[in-house]
Amino acid sequence: ITMNNVSVITMFFLSGFNETVSHRFVLFFLSLLCYCIICLVNVSLIVTIILDTNLHEPMYILLCVFCMNALYGTAGFFPRFLWDLLSDVRLISYYGCLIQTQVVYSFACGELSILALMAYDRYVAICQPLKYHSIMSKQRVIRFACFSWFTTFCIVAVNTFLTSRLKLCSPYISRLFCVNWSIVQLACFPAQTTINAIVANITISIYFLHGVFIVWSYMYIIQTCVKSIENRAKFMQTCVPHLVSLFTFVVAILLDIINMRLGSKELPRTLQNFAAIEFLVIPPIMNPLMYGFKLNKIRKRIYSVVISKTK
């Protein structure tokens, strides 16, 4: 179909798969195993927290939301990715591509929002312990979590909507999955993408400020912990997992952004593909395992369930 001499794109070809053809069955089974592990560890932690009333505390509620966000984000990537690995032609519909973009981006930004809430929770718990229960009530934490996720979804939706307005000149996306910037780069008229770039930079700035807030919170927490042995123990048990989560997530996202915005064509496609999907693979597996083993209450609860099942 043509409109003003511009083709209306109804399908996209995901050309990032071209290097995987010879190993696709091995990759399929490894990816399926990886997705099963992600579902198992995240669902286990969610169910443990929901069923145990002793874990109905702000920190564990936020951890539950964190795992739910991981399931949401990976559901936007893995089923489609597994299907494409078995297909001979990697096609995705235009609207399917926009939906995948919305899910993957809102997952990534939502992850940072939840980490910011976790940092604030630990800041109040360690720096203002007497005010903790009045500031961080269960109802307020749930409202904070819902508000931050809804806001994130809307911010990403604005980016996705602006992308949907562009006239595109090519159906080829050189990625394993759809992302906003890859679609914007296909625009026929670069002048039309100015507003996309502005809104994308505003979005990046908003979530960069989330990162600044997290660093600021932990600076205060560390300052407080230095003065007290009790607070040092609390920091090692509850804050270190947050910092490791933040570090792995930020490194994974930065790798993808650098690859996407400044990506060299000389880099091997396999390396580019790994950089692109790392944030959808490593944090969703690592985070629940790390929290499950590091946080005493969750570890004891899981042990008690496992022991009762084996008897």
From TrEMBL:
According to Swiss-Prot or TrEMBL, what is its membrane topology? Multi-pass membrane protein
Signal sequence range: none
* All copies of domain G-protein coupled receptors family 1 profile, residue ranges: 41-291
What are the subcellular locations of this protein?
A: Cell membrane
Alphabetized GO MF terms: G protein-coupled receptor activity; odorant binding; olfactory receptor activity
> Record's Gene Ontology CC terms?
plasma membrane
Tagged with keyword Chaperone: no
Keyword field contains Transmembrane: yes
Give start-end ranges for the coiled-coil region(s). Answer: none
Q: Name one Pfam family in it.
A: 7tm_4
Keywords for this protein: Cell membrane, Disulfide bond, G-protein coupled receptor, Glycoprotein, Membrane, Olfaction, Receptor, Sensory transduction, Transducer, Transmembrane, Transmembrane helix
What is the top-level taxon of the source organism? Eukaryota
According to the record, the segments passing through the membrane are 25-51, 60-83, 103-120, 141-162, 198-222, 243-262, 274-293
In terms of PROSITE patterns, this protein maps to: G_PROTEIN_RECEP_F1_1, G_PROTEIN_RECEP_F1_2
Alphabetical list of PANTHER family matching this protein: G_PROTEIN_RECEP_F1_2 DOMAIN-CONTAINING PROTEIN (PTHR26451), ODORANT RECEPTOR-RELATED (PTHR26451:SF871)
Task: Report the protein name in the record.
Answer: G-protein coupled receptors family 1 profile domain-containing protein
Q: What does the organism's lineage look like at the top?
A: Eukaryota, Metazoa, Chordata, Craniata, Vertebrata
Gene field: LOC120433661
